[in-house]
Amino acid sequence: MEAIKRLSRSAKASSGSSKEVAKSPPSKWFEDQFQVFVDEAEESIGPEGVEQLCKALGVDPADVLVLVLAWQLGATQMGYFSRAEWRSGTAMLGVATSYESLLERLKQVYAAARKRYESLRDLHVYTHKFCREERKKNIEVGAAVAMLQLLHGEAYKAKVHALSEFLQTHGTATKRGVSADEWSMMLNFFQEVDDDCGNYNEDGAWPLLLDDFVEWHREKKADGAQ
């Protein structure tokens, strides 16, 4: 819960919910669950409520499915689900009658997003906005690395591992963070560039940060081969 509280103090984002399911009135079960977890003083589900919801779902607060839920709700502040977000987002999720059925629905949404480029990109871009602190354009390297591992650690294991190591040692990135454009292009990089970066085109429209990464990666490989 401490991690949720720490990240939620000032993190805000724009709505980026999926359009996978036609919008319908939220089920009574969803309405009832909001009342279970709501902080009446805030008129929203706050960090403690989110933690309790995660326990009810049987998932860790750092599970990717919690991010998927926030994405579906179009949550604009990390660690908080407003009543309006909950009503609008759960209407997109369809009917649920139990935590098990909600969890299954979130798994289905995430699996579908990983297979559909537009949805995966929407989730990827939303994540940067969701992690961005208020009035800041960039996200801290620590948050970027955590989200890269969470979203793409299994699908692009080698590249995510290497890029995460690079980001944590790159002086400029550690000082200013990762921009929205750099974050967005990382998904393109994962999907288009080989693990050894052999097909990387330095003359392409890649941000300088990824140029630096490829140079670092090749030099590291060369040193290891000696």
Fraction of residues in H or I helices: 55-70%
Note poorly predicted spans.
Answer: 1-22
How many independent structural domains?
Answer: 2
Number of strands: 2
Could you characterize what this model shows?
- The protein is mostly helical.
- The protein folds into 2 domains: 2-127, Orthogonal Bundle (Recoverin, domain 1); 138-225, Cullin, PONY binding domain (Recoverin, domain 1, Orthogonal Bundle).
- 62% of the residues lie in helices and 2% in strands.
- The protein has helices at 2-8, 28-37, 47-57, 64-73, 83-93, 99-115, 117-131, 141-152, 157-167, 171-176, 180-192, 208-225; strands spanning 44-45, 81-82.
- The protein has a two-stranded antiparallel sheet.
- Helix 7 runs antiparallel to helix 8 and helix 7 packs antiparallel against helix 11 (180-192).
- The longest helix is centred in the last third of the chain and has 18 residues, at 208-225.
- It is elongated, with a radius of gyration of 19 Å.
